[in-house]
Amino acid sequence: MSFFEHRDGILHAEGVALPAIADAVGTPVHIYSAGALRHAANAFTSALRDLPSARFAFAVKANPNSAVLRLLARCGYGADIVSGGELRRALDAGIAASDIVFSGVGKTDRELIDGLEAGIGQFNLELEEEGRVLAQLARVRQMHAPAVLRVNPDVDGGTHAKITTGKRASKFGVDIADAPDIYARLVQLDGLDLQGIALHIGSQISDLTPLEAAYRRIGALVFELRARGHTITRVDLGGGLGVAYRPEDKMPSLSDYAAMVSRVTRDWNVSLTFEPGRVITGLAGVLLTRVIWVKPGATHPFVIVDAAMNDLARPALYDAYHHFSAVRPDGRTMVANIAGPVCETGDMFGVDRPIDHVGRGDLAVFHATGAYGAAMASSYNSRPVSPQVMVDGDTFELVGDRLAPCDVTTRSEREPRTAYRAHNTPVRQVA
Ligand code: LLP
């Protein structure tokens, strides 16, 4: 089912023609389809419905927009967070603290305290010392922090190197070989309520084989821990399922994923948590942009659009492919390099790519930008952070403002007030 389709020659998001959005809020703009979000959210939970006590925590990093979080909360999702900022966003969107899972390899004491005081449902511990610090912070508050230990299963997710997390050399989790001893020490700590294991081996995973291998290793660990006398009630299987960015991409179906999970975890006797991100929001967003110039190039012309790497960093960071199409295609095609205006050679969305024919002033979209799109935006080159719009049926709403650092200087830039003397220690603030 597609929520972004051409009708009468004009690309629509649900019932809204995209030029109407460009007229109302300008370009570039991130556009989400509420229908597509609901569809993906419900497809994921219904595929896994038959598992005993599955819990769904949307990976907020994929799309932290409040309107998106509120919509997903209504579909039964909690939140998987990795920072104090994401904690605030999840709580502000009305997600119950008990439905929040705190992942993240470098949680500060402040973030641990904020999570504790909010009463979140699960801390995913990344190292033994974090467990000790959390236990201590909980003890002084007469609390017991619910936690699981994140284990690195040493399985290659087979995805881009920069988004692979489950290999032994990566910074995430504790080595699976050390996990039983670390678990045994942590479980004794007063203040910590250690309940099980978590893993996450990477993102944009296109093959179930590594996921299954990782889950099996975790299953073996669950039985080993039980054999050592521990009570294991929770396993967090992380996120990672990929989406089809190219028309020809083949991704595992949700039913194949669910069948694999059910087969592998059948006798674990735990409650499972899932932390999907991309698979929920990825295909539910597009980035609408306008062609500024078509500039002659050595081999092919450069289609220079008003969106750039600060709006969509994935191509520059991971050589990621985002399909490009004209909002009003005229039937002709061209081969072009698609570039943003940022002053970096890497600000390219496509090289030597066959695309719909476009000219100066035309509207076009990058597809599948609903995950890690606006979420990774910056104001590099003092460009505004683009606005975000949610379409629902035949209406649309602005759900994120254009933030314009080029128009605004911060107070400290305008009138430096806070000076610090650093020659002597301690550092002193001077008037
Ligand atoms: N859980 C944990 C602990 C994670 O680190 C992540 C993603 C997820 C869940 C959600 O993974 P997903 O279902 O979305 O694959 N910026 C990159 C992706 C980074 C993913 C980081 N961790 C990109 O644009 O491809």
Describe the structure.
By secondary structure, the chain is of the alpha/beta class. It folds into two domains: 4-31 and 282-407, Lyase, Ornithine Decarboxylase, Chain A, domain 1 (Beta Barrel); 34-280, Alanine racemase (TIM Barrel). It is built from twelve helices and 23 strands. The strands form four sheets. Strands 4, 14, 15, 16, 17, 18, 19, 20 and 21 form a nine-stranded mixed sheet that branches. Strands 5-6-7-8-9-11-12-13 form an eight-stranded parallel beta barrel, surrounded by four helices. β22 (419-421) and β23 form a beta hairpin. α8 (208-227) runs parallel beside α9. The radius of gyration is 23 Å and the shape is globular. The N and C termini lie far apart (62 Å). The protein binds ligand LLP. Ligand LLP binds next to α10 and α11. Ligand LLP is lined by residues 59, 61-62, 80, 103, 163, 200, 203-204, 238-241, 275-279, 314, 318, 371-372.
SSE inventory with pairings:
Blueprint (H helix, E strand, L loop, with lengths): L3 E4 L2 E4 L2 E2 H8 L3 E5 H14 L7 E5 L6 H9 L3 E4 L2 H9 L7 E3 L6 H10 L3 E4 L2 H12 L5 E8 L21 E2 L3 H8 L5 E7 L9 H20 L6 E3 L17 H12 L5 E4 L3 H4 L3 E11 L6 E4 L8 H5 L5 E3 L6 E7 L8 E9 L6 E4 L21 E5 L2 E6 L10 H4 L4 E3 L6 E3 L1
The structure holds ligand LLP.
Ligand LLP binds next to helix 10 and helix 11.
Top keywords for this entry?
9-stranded mixed sheet, globular, binds ligand LLP, TIM Barrel, 12 helices, 431 residues, Lyase, Ornithine Decarboxylase, Chain A, domain 1, single chain, 26% strand, alpha/beta
